[in-house]
Each structure stands twice: as C-alpha cells, then as structure tokens.
C-alpha cells in the first residue's frame, strides 16, 4: 500500500510490458487546463468511445486512446487504478459519463474508485459517485489464473476452483 492507497503492478502478458518504451505513457493530466487542451485535440470518432486511463502512483490521471494497453498508458509503472473512461459535454463543462476498472493488465480492485475520484476531482471533472461498471478480479489459488467474477459466482472459469472473496490478483500484494 502506498500512502495514497493500494498500488497495482502489471500482471498481464510480459510481452506487452516489454514493448513499453520510455516516454510512451499516456498523457498526464494534472489540471483542468491540461484536460481542456487534451480533450480539444480529440476527434468526434475518438470521443464516441471510451479512453484508456490509469491513475499513477503520483495520483495523476493519464489518458490514452481506447485501444492502448494500460501498461503503455502507465509507462510500465505501478498504478493506483486503471480502466476505461468516457467523457461527454454537459452544458458548459466536460463530465465523466462512464468509468470502469476494466483493466486485465492491472486487475485493480473496485476499492480503487477513491483514487479515480480524487484524480478526477483534481482536474475539476464532473463524475459519478462510483464506477459505473465494476469489474471484480480474482486469482484462482488452484491454477493461478486471473478471473473476472460475474454475477457473484466466485468459481474459477479455468479449473472450477473456488475464488476468494477478497482481492488477491497480485501474489506479492
């Protein structure tokens, strides 16, 4: 745990992390002005779908096109959260219309919402009260595979073993 909250290391395919190059991270957004400049450069096509996001261990929001890998958006570093986010214009400001913790590379717990909320508040973006779509990740203690728990069915889709109730994806956490 960092002073801010639990940090997540990348647990996805090693070849994706190996492909990350220095300086290739997502766009760091630490103020409303930086977000305004960044969003002004997005096309209508880009705005029609969610973006990839991470919250770095420095608490800053980083954004990248949707088809970007979370590990690339994070520059290969640990994160406080990761997922997908969609923005819409409401009246005279940008707001978050959808946000999830859907990142199979970092598999952040739903409790990472507080870090996302803090990062969004820091750049003065309107936001929902929680993830609009929560993804529950667990690692099977038997076969060690990462699972997405659906409909509160805590059973491994790979081997049929029971999955723990508490987040356990990173074996070193």
TrEMBL record:
<protein>
    <recommendedName>
        <fullName>Zinc ribbon domain-containing protein</fullName>
    </recommendedName>
</protein>
């Amino acid at each position: 745990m960092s002073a801010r909250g639990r940090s997540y290391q990348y647990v996805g395919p090693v070849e994706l992390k190996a492909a990350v190059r220095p300086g290739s991270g997502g766009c760091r957004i630490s103020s409303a002005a930086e977000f305004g400049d960044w969003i002004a450069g997005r096309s209508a096509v880009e705005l029609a779908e969610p973006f990839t996001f991470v919250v770095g261990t420095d608490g800053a929001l980083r954004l990248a096109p949707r088809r970007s890998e979370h590990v690339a958006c994070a520059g290969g570093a640990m994160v406080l959260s990761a997922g997908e986010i969609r923005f819409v214009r409401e009246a005279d400001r940008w707001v978050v219309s959808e946000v999830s913790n859907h990142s199979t590379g970092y598999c952040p717990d739903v409790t990472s919402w507080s870090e996302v909320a803090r990062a969004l508040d820091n750049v003065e973006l309107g936001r929902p009260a929680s993830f609009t779509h929560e993804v529950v990740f667990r690692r099977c203690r038997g076969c060690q595979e990462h699972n997405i728990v659906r409909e509160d069915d805590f059973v491994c889709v790979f081997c049929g073993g029971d999955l723990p109730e508490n987040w356990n994806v990173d074996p070193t956490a």
